[in-house]
Request: fold
Amino acid sequence: MATMPRLNDPKIPTFPALKSISIDDRQSLEKYISSFPPYSDFNFMSLLTWNTDDCILVSKLFGNLVIQFDDYISRKTYFSFLGSKDTVKTCKTLFNEAKKKQIASELKLVPETSVSSKEFKNTFEVLEDRDDFDYIFGIQEMVDLKGRHIRSKRNFINRFKKNYEFTYKKIDLNDTSLKTSILSLTKTWKVNKGNEALSTKFEFKAIQNAIKYASSLDILTIGLFVGNELIGISINNLLPDKYAMNLFEKANSKYIGSYSFLRHITCNYLL
Reply:
């Protein structure tokens, strides 16, 4: 019988105490998180980079990882957790604390592995939220581009290759000569999406954090250029078991097909 993983690092406080996630938590959290499927909301690099104003707080409860999130659009606070130990008791404890704090009376972003037991489903109402599903792409499929179901991406890629003189390469986020270009591209993307959108404001900060912590994390970054202009960037966290998590994928949309081509060449590198 497999032993269920426990989070027992003394540096992580016991709930209801919480602490802001930091780069110093990497070893213990990645060791624990790697025992589960690669859920994007519990990816360490994602949590670290999106902690733009110290609002992502972590704790441990009955050996499970608890996270307090702030929705970056609504600014509503809610709890989530990852783990398989005493999940009913964990959930009840989180609901009681949420009531005390007068925050959201529902848990969000809870992975399927944490709510799959019969006891849990008999105790709580569990609803899937399709807006929070992870998208999983086969790397080989995105390299080969075969089949009718991928025809639109193939057409965009061929259109991009036909219309532009491009180059692409693996880039280092610590390269000071590229930082300005990366932030300039991100600002262009931000303007194209709408300067006032809260989501773009926080994502811009998250990308700045990715640059800040790049030397401490296992990442693959691909840059796409037209002439000397950086028109696309893909930042990916390399994970165990032949997974990679695409954390940020930004392109200048005036170059038709740039997003599809950027993903295609990124998968080539990953393969």
User: Anything to note?
Assistant: The chain has a mean pLDDT of 91. Strands lie at 19-20, 57-61, 64-70, 77-82, 166-170, 219-226, 229-239, 243-251. The two ends are 34 Å apart (CA to CA). The chain is about 35% helix and 20% strand.
